[in-house]
Fold these 2 entries.
Entry 1:
Amino acid sequence: TANMADTEAEGKGKGKPGEMTVEQSEEAEKEQLMVTPKLSLVQQMFMLKREGSSETEKEEATNNLIEAIKAKNMTPFYLYLQANYGIKKDNALEKKMKEANDEELKRLEAAIEDAAENLGGSEIREAHLAKADYLCMIGDKDAAIKAYEETTEKTVSIGQKLDIVFSLIRLGMFYSDNKLVTTNLEQADVLMEAGGDWDRRNRLKVYRGVYSTSIRKFHDATTTFLDTVSTFTSYELMEYRRFVELTVLLSMISLPRVELGKKVVDGPEIQEKLHESPTVKGYLDAFYKCDYSGFFKFLADIDEMLMKDCLLAPHRRFYIREMRIHGYNQLLQSYRSVTLESMAKSFGVSTEFIDKELSHFIAAKRLNCKIDKVAGIVSTNRPDMKNAQYQDTIKKGDLLLNQIQKLSQVVNI
């Protein structure tokens, strides 16, 4: 058990022989991040409930979940899956795991009592944290939240408080509890202002990026991911390869072409890892190099990938539609006019398909062009940005003047 002083300043001094300092204790807690809870199981739950999953995929997901449950005696999580995912109940397994949980919790409670009677404040805190981590690991959400709150009350170090907040964010992600996630992201911001270290600041950026992705704030997620791509350490959330894939996919929908080239296509950290993901690499290269036929082929592969990704699946249709628009816009920006036949050939589709696609996006005011169906030509209408800015300024100025007039009627200056 760590023997730390009750204050962070004192804890930074040397401990007794064989005892851990604050820094050593915090390193041990970072290692625990990999354990509580196991977020890779979220993907298995998604595959189990996804409408398009084959029986083989569902069976594989079920087996993976049961294997993880048995390995850690995750009784509360097992009950949750029975109630929400149709996992069959095994009375013998449930009884065995419940007994193991009761025995371990009894041991942890005894450790808390012993620390309270015989040891100092830091040991009491460590004993409470051990109980909270165990409850989080087995999937007992409500009990874990309560235990973490009790541990926070006994915690002085800003870094250790942040680690508890990170655990609560992960617990919220595990159970898709957005309120728990947002509440603790806000709490993490407050703690960072009070003195969070460099490593935890980077970690928080990744956590926030993952949450931003889940609520379709792709531009915000792109910014945070690109900031941390060279310093990524949040392996408790995902593997680095998946992080790079997410960064590339979101950058392509969020960044202008020049920034995409500078930060992603020419980004050494991204390119170093991207060779492990040939589909995503081919997709990026085809888009950036204006190989539109290849881009559309890879886009079909990306569509299939997104279908099976628990984080991006809810946004799949939006993402694919926006990337098609990006592709059309990129080609049209190079020409004043282009034939439908030539454009269809560039994208490797039929003239009828491209005509229907462009008509739909033009009607929705997503493409600045018009189609001459008789001549079979697409003419671009490049927006006059200066005139648009002028009109926008006039409009906002009128609104401001109206607000000032209303205010002057209420306030006697």
Entry 2:
Amino acid sequence: GTSGSFRYFIWLVAQELQSPSLPVLIECPSASAGENKGKYLLTPKNIDYHDEALLLFFGNLLGVAMRSDVPFAVDCLRPFWTRVLGEKIEFDVDLRHSDIITHNFLKGLKSFTSESEFKEQVLKICPTHFSNEECCPGCPYKFSYASLDGRDVELRAGSPLITWANLSQFIDCVKDLRREELSAKNMIPLIQCGLGAVVPLEPLRLMGPEDLQLRVCGQQEIDIGFIKLHTIYQVGISQSDKHIEYFWNVLEGLSQEDLRKLIKFACNQERIPFSCPCQENGPEASHVPPYPMKIAPAEGRDDRLIRSETCMFMIKLPQYSSEAVMKERILQAINCRDDPLSG
């Protein structure tokens, strides 16, 4: 777990799992409404042998991340981690975060207090809904609903029209569909099996969903104070050196996005562990990889670039003459780098 190439591999696998190239995860519907962007759920589907192998391996990777203390940045929402722990989802809360569109749609349907109010709203969307004519194309008031991955699912045979008499049945059917999808009962046991092959499952049940997510994925926010406490300076450099002060001053002014780029530049992983044994056992305790970060001297001054040794979490820092030059070189390093494994 200490090599830059291994951390880079874990980062690449997490990126691929969250891409459309693999049928494992799907971005949550709430993202299209501007909430929980970049957060994922399991793709609802009838699984085949290929899917089984992928889900088992997914579970293996979750366990590898825990064993190696290398964060595996799969940004799944709470229902996923709840189910991995074998617990039931909190449906109303989880639906609100996962699919705000469906949550609001159902909330609107439940708000009708009379048949006339219901009909008035429906006719605004579909003027022929209650006539003998064919219903409008795309009418949302039928016994069908879109799955999390966009497929049209029949909730009742023939997808009859929704009326005031069967409105409550339609609401229950949509809830059942989403509850089934968020619970992923056909997929979670395979992930648990893969995870259990690497780490014992029983101790994990002492965790909550948020604890498990943090243990596997690490913190998305970069804590400069924590990194500074876990940095050592190689021979010839001290924390009081002027260019070291410039370095930390620049880092404190960077955005979280740029800080993640810096960590990626230095150790090939955008996320690093959020805790270290030395917090409880004192500075003499061993550090969790890739800590400690190391700052080493480099030849030259303003005309030289910053270099890194990703396996060692080391930054080789020239003695730049000003904070402005330091910032320019740091931004150049994190935004113009090639693949760190290319040499």
